[in-house]
Design brief:
Length: 150
């Protein structure tokens, strides 16, 4: 069994659905991404491989969360389409993307291995950013905003 915890392929059969039918390019993309992620020096977070609901692409994503209270801080995804990929911050539960440069989106084309390398570098950059948590504390005269860096 593979001990790499990054980008584990979801098993749709657990939900009573048909198994994934990944083609050779998708399998190469997954293998290259997993190999590259195994050397990351970022804290482990939720990541997965699957397909979006419309089966239009191979979907890989990461999700940052905080445990107190349970809160998703951000989700980022890559949609791989064989010879090109789209990457960005997730904007809804269907893993659609904010596809604007100011949101850090990425569009690239190339071989599956080249795209997986770019995907891995992009995810590593996203996950390397500092997390700034804004917490509001109620005060008698209003509220003050504190920034905690972590």
């Amino acid at each position: 069994m593979d001990s790499n915890p990054w980008f584990v392929v979801e098993d749709p059969e657990e939900d009573g659905e048909e198994p994934w039918d990944f083609d050779a390019g998708e399998l190469a993309f997954i293998a290259t991404l997993q190999a590259r992620a195994a050397s990351w020096r970022v804290p482990l977070t939720c990541s997965s491989v699957g397909r979006p609901e419309d089966d239009s692409s191979l979907l890989v994503y990461v999700s940052l969360s905080d445990t107190e209270p349970p809160l998703i801080l951000g989700e980022w995804a890559v949609h791989f389409h064989g010879t090109y990929m789209r990457a960005g911050k997730v904007c809804d539960q269907l893993f659609n993307l904010h596809e604007t440069p100011e949101r850090g989106s990425l569009h690239a084309s190339g071989t599956a291995e080249q795209l997986a390398e770019q995907c891995a570098a992009w995810f590593e950059t996203v996950l390397s950013r500092p997390v700034i948590r804004m917490v509001k504390f109620p005060l008698d005269l209003g509220q003050r905003l504190f920034t905690l860096r972590g």
